């Protein structure tokens, strides 16, 4: 399934994107169904929803074209991973960590949705945008093993993670500071459930690409990560619990400098998913 939050006349609503371009409303497909996509994840009813969609989608439960919003705006946590591809580490004159992953937390104030502007604050120097594969947690996850980690993942989202790189170069301990300006985390337009992702091929073959003003800046596959998605989730779950709707952004194959007037894009899987944002 592909799940989106869309703007309807009576407010935002969680929907399943159908192949014919319509949206099936979750709150009508499920008995006492949640209207909010994060609430759907917290209810752990994705399997029930998939069965309802497979059975039939009545016309009265569908809506047509609608503005797509950020999937949700209040996750318990956004965990980012730094330098998880060797090539990107080289961009920063660093070596990719080999014994354990480098990570940071972002606040939900950084969230914007597809098509919303990424705002470059004045006076902070170079800012970069980084296309990433985001894992969305589907059920409570704490101290899980690598072999079981992906069982806790509801699906994936395209991510654009921004960094105030000039500030970071002043001091590597400024990592939280440089990652937490407003609009520095875009994700969406949809959550793609993990079963649909795997139907396109093994996760390690999934391509992640940073596109800048229509031109490919850098791409790599999940296999090029130093630490796999399962390893990242297992490692961090030994320290902190993960909750439904939490996002683990797994690192970028390449960061690109951005300026007002630019357009940046994250592409997953050569067409599986696309996220695009203008820069202001």
TrEMBL record:
GO molecular function, one term: catalytic activity
SUPFAM superfamilies on file: FAH
GO biological process: small molecule metabolic process
Bilayer-crossing regions: none
Keywords of this entry: Metal-binding
Family stated for the protein in its record: Belongs to the FAH family.
Name of this chain's protein: Fumarylacetoacetase-like C-terminal domain-containing protein
Organism: Mycolicibacterium flavescens
């Amino acid at each position: 399934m592909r799940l989106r939050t869309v703007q309807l006349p009576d407010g935002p609503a969680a929907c399943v994107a159908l192949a014919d371009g319509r949206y099936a409303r979750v709150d009508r497909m499920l008995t006492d169904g949640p209207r909010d996509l994060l609430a759907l994840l917290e209810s752990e009813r994705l399997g029930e929803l998939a069965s309802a969609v497979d059975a039939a989608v009545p016309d009265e439960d569908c809506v047509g074209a609608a503005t797509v919003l950020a999937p949700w705006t209040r996750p318990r946590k956004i965990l980012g991973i730094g330098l998880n591809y060797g090539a990107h580490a080289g961009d920063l004159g660093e070596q990719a960590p080999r014994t354990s992953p480098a990570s940071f937390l972002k606040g939900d104030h950084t969230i914007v949705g597809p098509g919303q502007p990424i705002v470059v604050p004045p006076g902070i120097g170079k800012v970069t945008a980084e296309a990433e594969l985001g894992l969305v947690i589907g059920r409570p996850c704490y101290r899980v093993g690598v072999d079981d980690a992906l069982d806790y993942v509801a699906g994936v989202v395209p991510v654009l993670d921004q960094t105030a790189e000039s500030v970071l170069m002043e001091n590597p301990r400024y990592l939280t500071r440089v990652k937490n300006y407003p609009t520095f985390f875009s994700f969406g337009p949809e959550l793609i459930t993990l079963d649909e992702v795997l139907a396109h091929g093994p996760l390690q073959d999934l391509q992640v690409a940073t596109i800048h003003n229509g031109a490919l800046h850098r791409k790599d596959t999940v296999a090029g990560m130093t630490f796999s998605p399962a390893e990242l989730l297992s490692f961090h779950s030994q320290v902190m619990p993960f909750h439904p709707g939490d996002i683990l952004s797994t690192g970028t194959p390449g960061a690109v400098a951005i300026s007002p007037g630019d357009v940046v894009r994250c592409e997953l899987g050569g067409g599986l998913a696309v996220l695009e944002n203008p820069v202001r």
